[in-house]
Structures are given as structure tokens and as C-alpha cells.
């Protein structure tokens, strides 16, 4: 599989054969990728797949055991001071000064950069204008998450590294941040994003890499990955036990059956024939159908097919 795309000379991030080990564990296993300037690039994978380790190497917080990394042309280890002035970084568990207000935390972060965004602008983007005088230790979980993202954005960096930026947010707050990320992309920013939300990656990302056990197992646009893996449509059945899998696998048109989250998904090349047989089986009282829905295959379907497990496992 060809993993590099585009010209490295025009790229914001270039990674070649990157490897990181912890004792006998290979956390990142010879991954290679190129992220082009102005791209929203997503890295997806189960917990422990190597996503956060990759981000930490790219921003200079960890040293690779092998391979080459360039961000904006800089080596994150030997040229870290030059690099850090030009990037924004949001990690999953940052340390904050609890006696600073929201506004003060943003002002402090802004001082580290040559041309930061105005504090008022970032407060508005993050939906925190009415919390500007609140101490950070009094924020709710969602408010704190938005502040952390705002602290990464305020530097007006050319490349933004966002490690699960919408975790713990309600759907409205998540969609609001999506709008901000797309606005930043229109400004010419490059965004390297890790996420647990498949719909987020499918909506936002120009390209995604799926990483499992430290290796990239798929790389491309969401539509490319879906098209490569599925010609079928998905038929979802809720509240149906896995004991029915044998019957379902034998239905006309069905190529694959996936069980996850108390739901069975059938992938069928002939949806009409599959549905007719399902209705017949229910009429014969051999199956009880509940919550039937038909949809196109999604990025989550690709993830489940390639890794064989849920994103959160």
C-alpha cells in the first residue's frame, strides 16, 4: 500500500518510517505519511493504537527510536524552539493554573507566540465569553475542554495538533467546534486531528489514516476508504441477539454480518432481496425484527472491518 501522497516540499508534516518502542512494546511501527498544507488530516485508532504517541513525537514531546519527522521543515527535537512558535498543541491531559481565570489562561498562552489571535475572538469561538472571569478550576468538563482547545488555537500557529479535541462535549458544542476548525482551515491552517468520533472524521477530514497496533492499515479520503472496502449497503437491526447471526449470514445478498453495541449490521449487495427474506422470516416467526434501517456504508464500518473492534476498545 502506497502511504505517501503529494510533494514533501509542499507539505506541512512529513513522516518517514517513524518507530517508537517502550521495552518490548512497539507503540509506533514504521509509519510514513505526508500532510499537505491546508489539510485537515485525521488519525483514527483504538485506545493504545499509537495515536497520542505519534502526536507527542510530532510536537517534540517524545523522541523517536527511528525514522524521520519534519514539521514545517523543522526537526521537532533539534529545532524545537523554532517549531513551537509556529504550531498549536492540544493534549488530552494538560496542566492548568487553577487560580487563573479563563481570560488570563488565554492571555498567558498568547504571550508565547509572535502573532496570536485576540483573546476576545478565541473566547467567542470557544463559546466562553460569559465565562471569561471564571477560575479554570470551577469550569465544567465541557467548558474546560473548550478552554484547552482555545489555548492551542490562540497562538495562530500554522499547524494545529488536536488530540481528541471534542471528547466529552455535547453534540451542539462539538458541532460548534467543527465550524471553528473549518474556519481555521479556510485561513490556511493545517490541522492534525485524532478523534474517537467516526462521524467527526468523516465530516471534517480531507484524509484519514487508520492506525492499529502501531501501524497504518489504511490511508486516504473517507470516500476512498469507504469505496475501497464496501460496495454494499448496510442494513441495521437493533435489539437482535448474536444467536441469530447464522440465519442472517445466509440471507441473499449478505456478504458480512457485524455485531456491535447491541446492534447487528448486515452488509448486502442486494438490499431488496435481503429485506424480502427478512420479512418472510419474521412472518414465519423465526426472527423478530426491530429498528430496521438502511444506509450507505460509513467510515465506522470501514474501521470495524479493518480492525475487527470498536473504536473505544
General description of the model:
Helix 3 (102-110) runs parallel beside helix 5 (141-153) and helix 8 crosses helix 11 (299-307). It contains 11 helices and 13 strands. The strands form 3 sheets. It has a 6-stranded mixed beta sheet with strand order 5-6-7-3-8-9, sandwiched between helices. A 4-stranded antiparallel beta sheet has the order 11-12-10-13. It has helices at 51-58, 80-84, 102-110, 119-125, 141-153, 171-186, 198-204, 222-229, 245-249, 271-283, 299-307, and strands spanning 11-22, 25-36, 40-44, 66-71, 87-90, 159-163, 190-194, 207-212, 215-220, 233-238, 254-260, 263-268, 293-296. The protein is globular and about 70 Å long. The protein is of the alpha/beta class and 313 residues long.
Number of domains: 2
- Run of helices and strands: EEEHEHEHHHEHEHEEHEHEEHEH
Q: CATH homologous superfamily of the largest domain? A: P-loop containing nucleotide triphosphate hydrolases
| H/I helix tally | 11
Overall CATH class of the largest domain: Alpha Beta
Sum up the structure in keywords:
disordered N terminus; single chain; Alpha-Beta Plaits; globular; 2 domains; 313 residues; Rossmann fold
Write the layout of secondary structure elements.
Layout: E1 11-22, E2 25-36, E3 40-44, H1 51-58, E4 66-71, H2 80-84, E5 87-90, H3 102-110, H4 119-125, H5 141-153, E6 159-163, H6 171-186, E7 190-194, H7 198-204, E8 207-212, E9 215-220, H8 222-229, E10 233-238, H9 245-249, E11 254-260, E12 263-268, H10 271-283, E13 293-296, H11 299-307
Parallel strand pairs: 3-7, 3-8, 5-6, 6-7
Antiparallel strand pairs: 1-2, 1-4, 8-9, 10-12, 10-13, 11-12
